Recover the amino acids of this structure.
């Protein structure tokens, strides 16, 4: 469970494990040594050396206690820890997450922090193979690939992030809500990734069937673009089809709700009018014979205001 690292790093983590022997465990029978070794395996030795072993042990075990029940959605808390409530204190505000492991998690949170001009002071991001009951109760935390006595395992991402201290309770709640929304967007984009690729391939097939009616050069360039996107050069976040409505000078796009995928799937996007009025420059080109039109949306992507 423990990754090869420097001798200094091994000594620091050993001190954390030793400190944990005097702390009550949040899960009976849990192997605290192996949990803590993985929790801090990829944290820089300099960051570990700046903290006391007791603080590191207590904060990690507090995170594990926070993870004890989760069903589907991400667990998010943004708080200023206290000795009385959490067993440790910090000069920083702490962000803790427990979520299914998937791409974009760290980058998405980083965007939210950058948007609020918050400095990152500490990050621990272990990934565990977790077993849970049907109701979401945590039954065990294992190394990836460890046997789980016949129980089904899921990879879960634990993130402990420390940022500039936030004292305003409303700002703490606002940041937590923003991160929760962003995690929902990440989940939707990852869940529909293959479906969005399939939609791209259907589009390419449709172009092939219309080949005799299209300009060969435009057709070739558009198909090359679609192929480039499919070859892992493009991040698919959302997909939706629209119908062009309205007469000349009054063109608008009416979304086809059932086609939405990723962050544009039904129920995921923010409420709003299902008809989008086209800007004047796009309106002029909407009825042209150009196959591809690349433009910038007038709505804000994640992170976004609610």
């Amino acid at each position: 469970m423990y990754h090869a690292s420097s001798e200094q790093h091994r000594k620091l983590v050993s001190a954390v494990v030793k400190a944990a022997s005097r702390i009550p465990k949040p899960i009976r029978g849990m192997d605290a040594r192996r949990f803590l070794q993985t929790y801090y395996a990829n944290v820089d030795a300099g960051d570990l050396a700046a903290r006391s072993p007791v603080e590191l042990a207590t904060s990690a075990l507090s995170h594990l206690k926070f993870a004890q029940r989760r069903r589907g959605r991400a667990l998010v808390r943004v708080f200023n820890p206290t000795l009385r409530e959490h067993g440790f204190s910090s000069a920083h505000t702490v962000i803790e997450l427990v979520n299914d492991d998937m791409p974009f998690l760290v980058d998405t949170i980083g965007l939210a922090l950058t948007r609020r001009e918050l400095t990152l002071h500490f990050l621990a991001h272990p990934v565990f193979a977790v077993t849970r009951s049907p109701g979401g109760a945590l039954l065990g935390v294992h190394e990836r690939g460890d046997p789980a006595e016949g129980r089904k395992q899921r990879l879960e991402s634990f993130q402990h992030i420390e940022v500039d201290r936030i004292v305003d309770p409303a700002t703490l709640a606002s940041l937590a809500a923003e991160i929760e929304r962003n995690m929902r967007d990440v989940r939707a984009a990852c869940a529909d990734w293959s479906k969005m690729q399939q939609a791209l391939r259907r589009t390419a097939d449709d172009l092939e069937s219309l080949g005799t009616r299209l300009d060969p050069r435009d057709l070739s360039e558009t198909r090359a673009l679609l192929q480039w996107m499919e070859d892992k050069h493009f991040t698919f976040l959302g997909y939706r089809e629209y119908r062009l409505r309205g007469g000349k000078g009054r063109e608008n796009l009416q979304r086809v709700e059932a086609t939405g995928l990723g962050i544009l799937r039904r129920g995921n996007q923010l409420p709003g009018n299902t008809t989008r009025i086209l800007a004047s420059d796009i309106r002029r080109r909407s009825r042209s014979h150009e196959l591809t039109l690349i433009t910038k949306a007038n709505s804000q992507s994640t992170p976004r205001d609610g």
About this structure: The CA atoms of residues 25 and 127 lie 20 Å apart.
